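Example 419, ligand protoporphyrin IX containing FE.
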Amino acid sequence: MTGTPDLDPLDLSSLDFWGRPMAERDATFRELREQRPISWHRPPEGMLMPGEGDAGFWAVVRHADIGHVSKNPKIFCSGQGVQFQDAPPELLEASQSFLAMDAPRHTQLRKIVSAAFTPKQVRTIESRIAERAERIVDDLLDHGDGDFVALVAKQLPMGTIYDLMGAPVEYQDPLAEAADLLVATNDPDVLENLGLEDPLQAAGQALAGLLGPALELAEARRRDPRDDLMTNLVAAEVDGQRLTDDEIGAFFVLLSVAGNDTTRNTIAHAMRGLTENPDQRAWLVEDLEGRVGGAVEEFVRHGSPVLTFRRTATQDTELRGQDIAAGDKVVMFYESGNRDADVFADPLRLDLARDPNPHVGFGGGGPHFCMGNMLARTQLRQIFSQLLTRVSDLTVGEPETLRSNFVHAVKTMPCSLGG
Ligand code: HEM
């Protein structure tokens, strides 16, 4: 970067900011969207690798600009990291797979698994997802009031992704816990509860919890192939070469993190939104089958379960008139793009009839657009179809949220079955 730009007076880098509710954070993003759509900020607090010459980042907060950055990977690349905060290269290599790569390697690796996530393929497993959603609601009815996250929101994404991967049922809870820890390293309460000293130690523990079982499973599938994603991974070849254990491990970590937490949090935020907006719920229930597809889009927009992803400028460029130098970090704030009043009328309102709804919850387009979007949409449709017809008085209380600048996560949230 040539010269350091002036720091914006609003602070997107403190851990305190990311501990506040999204509605409060939006006042900050609204000011940025309206007055300084491209702004410069100090490096975020709570980094896995603090200091070490990190200058800061450009914040991209408008819907159109998130689309522009996402769709121009030659100028805004992923290969130098996609997280808001820096992390040691070994950690990135072990955990991010093709998420943090550029073409042509990104294209080759994504292709190995993307066939399992196409709309057509997801339709073939929809009945399995529906049965699982039905069982989860059976169990909720048996159990009664409790923690909505543990009883419902966590269950469907966990079962779905590990079923696809081929991970045995008894591995699923510990794997999901390790995947959660990997995105919770910034939350001091999480570290304290687990007796962990710092974010790096937490990340190491999380990775060990994922990689051990991943490599065991890989070995089992080499010996005894089945019809699952791990079998595809161990058999896959890129340029005539099998994937290494490290590459298989990183695939498994990426799919574990991407497949669990995101959909779980969308389910939790959506249930909270329905509880707080009984008029919207009544409208949805009136024609559930006809309206649930559109409602799911609004759940993703309103909940914005993934908050940020980063790119790095590969050349000097400009964004909305602001010069960006080669090597500068550029962070996209999806929650802000999803509240851009130029695109969404009354953006803070949960409006299940919103149409069109071109949200950036799954990313702003381009080669990294969420590979699991159809799988997530299907799970959301199925779980709400069950919940809203079979537990018609279900309500949830105040969520306890995670302090994170990456995911908008609900740790726990009480639910009452009513009646
Ligand atoms: C509501 C749930 C979900 C949300 C909000 C979400 C959001 C996102 C976002 C914002 C990105 C980055 C897009 C970009 O950089 O342009 C992404 C990428 C990704 N998502 Fe999702 N996701 C969800 C569910 C899932 C599920 C269920 C899976 C299944 C494994 C999944 C797998 C992935 C993968 C593999 C990538 C990386 C794609 C690439 O780099 O090419 N996601 N997701």
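Summary: Residues 17-416 form a domain with the Cytochrome p450 fold (CATH 1.10.630.10).
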